[in-house]
Amino acid sequence: MKITLIVTGRTEETWLRTGIREYESRIRHYVPFSIHEIPALKNAATLTQLQQQQREAELIQYQLLPGDTMVLLDERGTPFRSVEFADFLNKQFVAGGKNLVFVAGGPFGFDPELRKKARFLLSLSKMTFSHQMVRLFFTEQLYRALTILRGPSYHHE
Known about the structure:
Layout: E1 2-8, H1 14-27, E2 33-38, H2 49-63, E3 69-79, H3 82-95, E4 99-104, H4 112-117, E5 120-123, H5 133-150
Parallel strand pairs: 1-2, 1-4, 3-4, 3-5
């Protein structure tokens, strides 16, 4: 199974890019992994929040292949402890799908129609994080979950 993280806009801060690249490299020791950046919307200031969500949803759906399992990273989703997230991943691996696609939306969240198409809504926290910080937090948690499944001593409980 391949895992993909789709994000909206570029990661601006150098320190965030450095951290994300570090975890991206570590993740690839366990599974094929990639991050796809969808360009930020042009003239976003002239669009309503709903219009921005709809345009981002179109761009996200364009990245999906038939049979992909889409999981939205959403503050209203189900929160997991790290070991629960590892168990969730393991169930996805056992189910045997081709691609597991996690999506971190833009600053206004997800279009309601895209939300309906998601297989699962996952919350990283009850707190709200910037859409750029979510990238680092998610890649670290993905790496942590993979080490829980594979046994290296990264996670302590």
